Amino acid sequence: MSLPPMKLSSPAKINLSLRVLGRREDGFHAVDTRMCPISLADDVTVTLKGSGDTVLTCSDPTIPTNDGNLALKALHAFERHLGTTASWEIHLEKRIPHGAGLGGGSSNAASVLLAANELSGSPFSANELSSIAAEIGSDVPFFLHQKACDATGRGEIVTPVEHFPWKLPLVLLKPPFGIPTPWAYKRWVESVEMPGVTYATQICPWGPMVNDLERPVFEKWSLLPTLKMWLLDQPETQAALMSGSGSTVFAVTRSTADAGLLAERARALCGESTHIFVAETL
Fold first, then answer.
1. Is 25 inside a domain boundary?
2. Per-residue H/E/C for 165-203
3. 1: in domain
4. Residue 191 half-sphere exposure, CB side, CA atoms within 13 Å?
5. In this structure, is residue 219 part of a structural domain?
6. Euclidean distance between the first and final Cα of the chain, in Å?
7. CATH of the domain at 194
8. Which uninterrupted H or E stretch holds 14?
9. Strand order of the sheet with strand 249-253?
10. Can you give the pTM of this predicted structure?
11. Catalytic choice (139, 174, 212, 258)
C-alpha cells in the first residue's frame, strides 16, 4: 500500500551578495555568497507508490520531465546512495520562473530529497543528505536548510546565518529570457563594467549587497542594467541587485506597501512580457 503523498513548499532564493573569487582547478568557480529563501515558491508533491514506473509531472509544459530535470536527478541520487529503487510519483506545481537566477530547479531537487528521505523512514542524516545534494548541483544543499545561509566553495559548503531577523519586502523583475549560468561565469574574468551603471557594494542594515556576475551579464543583456538603475531611482527602493546569474533583478523596498506600489509602476513600465513578483525573505 502506498503512503500518503507528501507536499512541500519549494521556495525560490535571492543572492543578497555574490562574490566570485576565481576559477578552480576542477573548472568551477569559487564563490562567497549569502542566499535567502523567499516567499515565492513552487509546490512539490512526492508519493511513494506500491508499484509501477516512477513518473514526474509538471504544471509548466515547457519544463522537461525527463532525467535531465533536477527533481529526477535528486531522486536517482537518493536511490543510488540508499542502494534500492522504488516506484515514485513527483509533481511540480511551478510558480518560480525558469532561468531566473532564483534557484527553482535546485529548490525542487532539495524538496524531493527531503520528501524521499522522510517517506523512506529517514535513512539519511541531515549531513548525509547535504552530501547527496552537493552531487546534484551547487545550490541544492542551501535549500535543505530553509533559512538564510552563507555559502562558499562552489556554493555547496553552507553555513546557516545564526541571526537574520529581517523580513525584507521584495519586488522581483524577471524579463522574458534566461541567462545560462556557465556562460556568466565563463565571461566573468574578461568582462568590463558599463559606464553609468552602479556595481559598487550597497551597504545595508542586513549586510552588504553586491553581485560580481552583474558585470558579464549586464555587458550582454543591456535591459538588465536599465532595470536595476530604474529600481535604484525609485523612492520605495532601499537597494537593488541582480540575483545569481540572472535574469531576475530585484529591489528591497522600505515596506510591504511600498513593494506593492513599486510593482504596479514596474508593470506599467515593463508590460506583460516581464514576470513581476512581490515577495519577502523567509
1. yes
2. CCCCEEEEEECCCCCCHHHHHHHCCCCCCCCCCCCCCEC
3. no
4. 21
5. yes
6. 36
7. 3.30.70.890
8. strand 6-23
9. 237-242, 249-253, 169-174, 275-280
10. 0.95
11. 139
Whether residue 28 sits in one domain with residue 138: yes
Which of 13, 94, 174, 228 is flagged as catalytic?
Answer: 13
Whether 187 maps to a domain, the answer reads: yes
Could you read off the pLDDT tens digit of each residue along the chain, which spans 282 residues? 568 999 999 999 999 999 999 999 888 999 999 999 999 999 999 999 988 899 999 999 999 999 999 999 999 999 999 999 999 999 999 999 998 999 999 999 999 999 999 999 999 999 999 999 999 999 999 999 999 999 999 999 999 999 999 999 999 999 999 999 999 999 999 999 999 999 999 999 999 999 999 999 999 999 999 999 999 999 999 999 999 999 999 999 999 999 999 999 999 999 999 999 999 999
Decide if 13 is catalytic. yes
- Looking at the chain, the number of H-run helices and the number of E-run strands are 8, 11
- Cα separation of 196 and 225, whole Å? 9
| Phi, psi dihedrals of residue 120, rounded to the nearest 5° | -95, 5
Q: For the stretch 216-249, what's the b/e string if a residue is b when 16 or more beta carbons lie within 10 angstroms of its beta carbon?
A: bbbbebebbbebbebbbebebbbbbbbbbbbbbb
Q: Are residues 62 and 151 in the same domain?
A: yes
Instruction: Tell me the residue range of the domain where 268 lies.
Output: 169-280
The verdict on whether 94 is a catalytic residue reads: no
Give phi and psi for 64, each to the nearest 5: -60, 145
